[in-house]
Amino acid sequence: MSRAGTWLKMLTVNSGVVCCVGGPAFVQYIRPTDEELFKRYNPDLQKRSLEEGDRRARDFDEYVTKLKEWSKSDKHIWIAAQEQQEQRRLEAQTQNTQAKEDARVQREEMRKELLGGK
């Protein structure tokens, strides 16, 4: 029984090692590279991917820069991001109200010119 138990333990350990090491190695072996995936695209997707690649890289760099900026504060990153988003919303709202006010002033001036010109 002792020898059979030892062999059983050895087989169990070996099969565990094969699964833990061999599984990820097999997945890495069969995973296609980025170039292989790109070659499988149809020509329209390849063209669009090449055109949008720079923009996506720029957007990602901007996002990483913002994350670095948010991490410098003593607040949690997501709270800092939410505060910045709220600040941008308020700025957009202020610009919108300013544009409406400018349009109203311009309409008033046009109205005065029309009435004064008669």
Question: What would your notes on this structure say?
Answer:
91% of the residues lie in helices and 0% in strands. It is elongated. It is mainly alpha-helical and 118 residues long. The mean pLDDT is 89. It has 4 helices and no strands. The longest helix has 41 residues.
Short summary:
This protein has 118 residues and is an all-alpha fold. It contains four helices and no strands.
Write the layout of secondary structure elements.
Elements (H helix, E strand, L loop, with lengths): L1 H29 L3 H7 L2 H30 L4 H41 L1
Pfam families: CBP4
InterPro entries: Cbp4
Function: Essential for the assembly of ubiquinol-cytochrome c reductase. It has a direct effect on the correct occurrence of the Rieske protein, core 4, core 5 and apocytochrome b.
The H/E string reads: HHHH
Question: Helix- and strand-based class?
Answer: mainly alpha
Question: Helix content range of the residues, please?
Answer: over 70%
What would you call the shape?
elongated
Mean pLDDT metric: 89
Counting DSSP H or I runs of 4 or more residues, the number of helices is 4
Number of strands: 0
Largest sheet: none
Indicate the proportion of strand residues. Answer: under 5%
Q: What is the CA-atom radius of gyration, in angstroms?
A: 32 Å
Q: Which residue ranges are poorly predicted, with pLDDT under 50 across at least 5 consecutive positions?
A: none
CA distance, first residue to last residue = 116 Å
